[in-house]
Amino acid sequence: MKTAVCRRTLVMKVAAYVAAVAAQGANTPDGVPATIPNTKQYDFKSKINGQTYRLWINAPAKRDPAVAYPVFYSLDGSNLVNPFAFAGAGAQGAVPAILVAIGYATDDPELSHLLRVVDLTTSPLREFVSETKAAFPAGATFGGGDTFLRVIEEEVKPFVQSRYRVDLSRQTFYGHSLAGLIALRALFRNPKAFSTYCIASPSIWYNNRDVLSDEAGFSKRVKEEDLRLRILITSAGDEQRPSSNPLSKISRMVDNASELAGRLASLNPASVKVTRVVFAGETHNSVMAASIARALRFALAPE
Fold first, then answer.
1. Which of 3, 16, 183, 259 is the most buried (most CB within 10 A)?
2. In this predicted model, what pLDDT tens digit does every residue of 214-255 receive, in sequence order?
3. DSSP H or E stretch at residue 76
4. Annotated active-site positions, please?
5. DSSP string of 124-155, one letter each residue
6. Which domains does the chain have, with CATH numbers?
7. Could you give the C-alpha distances from 99 to 69, 104, 198, 215, 286, in angstroms and in order?
8. Radius of gyration from C-alpha coordinates of the chain
9. Whole-angstrom Cα distance, residue 64 to residue 106?
10. Which helix (H) or strand (E) holds 283?
């Protein structure tokens, strides 16, 4: 009986869809703005640093008001690959969750790139060697990462929690490249802010690896406090090979990440669980989609 009712409901939905398309006309030769299913977009101006941010929030279509859902925070939302990936978060291997991509209120990729450089770097750039200069746009400023982490903790997270019922024990932070650098900074300095850290191709090389200056303090906390953390560290198999990008010669993207994963995994395996993944055949840019897909399954696996 239940199967018959579901079949009738589906038939009715198909009929309604056909009628709606016929009513509005099937052809759209000039195109129309695209939408992301179950996603809302919010712009807000930070009171902390004065920057205007854009949030894309994807929530389960049929939320149970009695359920608190995990939250997955992703940086570089302006690249759009993250919100599009979020639309498939209900796929096999991931529990329903609230997915938040953090970016900027602009459609200009060059401006977005300039804004992300200041937000995702841990300190002012001390010197421009020729290889490092090639990695950044002209006119970039650096070192606003700690302030940006305050924006996330003091403004973004309360904004989300005021609109959605959140499971505070299951919050994830994802970042790729420079965003992976700032995610590592957050892990070292404020590990209890999230229960899961997904650190993809982190730019550990930045400013002579100064992000690692906090590693000893973090290691001490792991041994002295009850930290329950899950950490995923990923890389692209081809991002350290010699290439036309001069930065590949000095960045040690794969080696730095592997060495870091090894050190963290040895701290206290009972409380800090570290998973290391290298995506063979991917480059630094192409790996972003693969890394966030893996991060979603890693962070949102059924308990």
1. 183
2. 999 999 999 999 899 999 999 999 998 776 566 666 789 999
3. none
4. 177, 239, 284
5. ------HHHHTTS-TT-----HHHHHHHIIII
6. 40-299 (3.40.50.1820)
7. 10, 16, 14, 29, 22
8. 21
9. 33
10. none
